[in-house]
Amino acid sequence: MSRLRIEASTPLCLLQDAGRFGVRHLGVTQGGAADWCSASWANWMLGNRLDVPVIEITLGGFAVVAEDDCLLALAGADLGAQIDGQPLAPWRSFKLGKGQKLLFTQPLLGARAYLAAPGGFEAPKVLGSSATVVREAFGGLDGLGLPLAKGAALSYRGESLSLREVPLALRLDLKSNAPLDLVLGAQIGQFSGQSLFDAFNSAWTLDSRADRMGIRLLGKALEYQGQPMISEGIPLGAVQVPPDGQPIVLLNDRQTIGGYPRLGALTPLALARLAQCLPGAQVRLRPVVQEVAHCEHIKYLQRFSNS
């Protein structure tokens, strides 16, 4: 067994995997890596299964010291990572010698970085997953849903492989200003015509009121003209519109049901890009049909097996 010792952390640094599924009927949300693409590439570089636990580091402020020589992998945001003061770029695996310190300082590009270890970090499974959901007290190193804390040990048992890097063409483009694709929902026809025009032809600003439950979009207020709704299940990426007309994109730690009308839901790839945006960033929405979004998702998943 090899270990890393946490020297610094914040409440935004969490153990995550692919998420918790098959339990929403119990009122339990899925959790999991907000940027599933980057988390998967971090595991891919080490030959891991794509769904094993990684560390999700949001905005920096995280540091570990190696208790053994090790090979780790980093993908996602550039959070000013350093090994003993020397810069470390993401999207590659790297060696960390015994006693060396890996430090994440602050966002330079993107919001969330993902650190993987051979075989995945060890943690108990709660309802089939180690994903941390603080609100529900599930997952994490102790199974109680706690953020990673200073002094805790991160253990793993996998074997180290050769150094590897994600090809530039396969990386998530954190500089892209392309619109976020949205699969149209059942209530789309019950918004005013002007609101539909504004929704897909105006820029939306990401509010600072954002967490792993959801991100509020600020812009022209949307007007829902339909009847009041009965609460129904909410998919990942659902774009709800509350009475104030300001949409909310619901993320991994969302509630399982809700009664606000929805424009639709962001595609998985759009969600990964959104998870890397900082408050104040501007995004646009683009309507797509489900068949197109599904084909695009399958094509992206094939990259992991074809690379």
TrEMBL record:
SMART domains for the chain: AHS2
Pfam families: CT_A_B (PF02626)
Keywords (A to Z) from UniProt: ATP-binding, Hydrolase, Nucleotide-binding
Transmembrane segments: none
Parts forming coiled coils: none
Span of domain Carboxyltransferase: 25-304
InterPro entries in alphabetical order: CT_A_B (IPR003778), Cyclophilin-like_dom_sf (IPR029000), PxpC (IPR052708)
Top-rank lineage group of the source organism: Bacteria
Official protein name in the record: Biotin-dependent carboxyltransferase family protein
